[in-house]
Amino acid sequence: MKRNRKSLDKLGAVSDYHGFRMHDFELDGCKCKIVEPKTPRPGKPWVWKAEFFEAFPGFELEMLARGFYLAFMSVGNTFGCPNAMKHFDVFYRELHENYGFAQHAILLGLSRGGLYIYNWGARNLDKLACVYGDNAVCDFKSWPAGRGTGIGSKNDWDKLIRDYEFKSEAEALAWPGNPVDNLRPFIKAGIPLVHTAGTDDTVVPSPENVDVLEKNYRGLGGNNLKVFRHPGGHHPHGLEDPAPLIEHILNVGIGLQS
C-alpha cells in the first residue's frame, strides 16, 4: 500500500536561508529545519547536518545548489548520546516515510557533530549514503576530555559524562564506542567515509582523531575512506572550494550515482 506523502508547503514557519526556502518546525520536542533546493534532484536526496546548523555552510549551500535538500534537528549539546539519538530516529522516519526523502542520507558532522553521525550511523547503516566528518571529533577522550594535546573543555566533559549516564569518569574513558573504535560495521556495510581535516587544529587535533580513525580503519581492511587535509586550524571548517569533496561524495555515495 502506497503511503500518502506529506507536502512541505505548509510545514512550519517559512523563511529565507541564503536565498533558499527554509521551514522551521518542531518534532519530538526538538526544533528542526528543512531547506529546499530550487531545483530538486529526483528522489529527494538530502544532507543531514548533525550540529551547528548556521556554521560554515559552504558545503551545504553548494549541495542545495546541486539539488539536495538540507535537514537539521537540534538535540542540544548532547555529544551523540544514546537518548539524543532516539530523537534522530524519529526525525529520519518523518522525513523518509512521510515526506518521501531518500532512504540514504548524507550525514554531516561538524566538530562534535562527528560523535552524532558515527553513533547514529553505526545503528542505521541501511539509511546512509555516506558519512562526512568536518574537523570531526572521533574520540571524546581527545575532546572534550582533553586527554591528549588538545585544549579540551571541562564543562563539556562533565556534561558528556552526565548525558551518556556514565557512572564515573573512569567508565567514560574506558568506553569502547567512540568512532575510532566502532568502524567494523561501516566497513562490513560498505559505507563510504569522508573527512576534511585542518592540519593545525588544536581543538580537535588530527593525530588524536581522524588520523587514529584512518589508521584503525585501514588496519581492519577498510578501503572506502577519503581524507581531505588542508592547512588551517579548527576554524574555518571545510574546504575553501568544496567541489572536489562534493564530486567524491557523488561518486562514492550510496544511491547518489544517478
How would you characterize the overall build of this protein?
With 258 residues, the chain is α/β, with parallel strands linked by helices. The protein has a single domain, classed as Alpha/Beta hydrolase fold, catalytic domain (Rossmann fold, 3-Layer(aba) Sandwich), CATH 3.40.50.1820. It is built from 8 helices and 9 strands. It has a 9-stranded mixed beta sheet, with helices on both faces. Strand 8 (193-198), helix 7 (210-219) and strand 9 (225-230) form a beta-alpha-beta unit. The mean pLDDT is 94.
- Give the terminus-to-terminus CA distance: 26 Å
Percent strand equals 15-25%
Please give the number of β-strands: 9
Question: Compute the gyration radius: what is it?
Answer: 18 Å
Major beta sheet, specifics?
A: 9 strands, mixed
Low-confidence stretches: none
What is the CATH top level name?
Answer: Alpha Beta
CATH architecture classification name? 3-Layer(aba) Sandwich
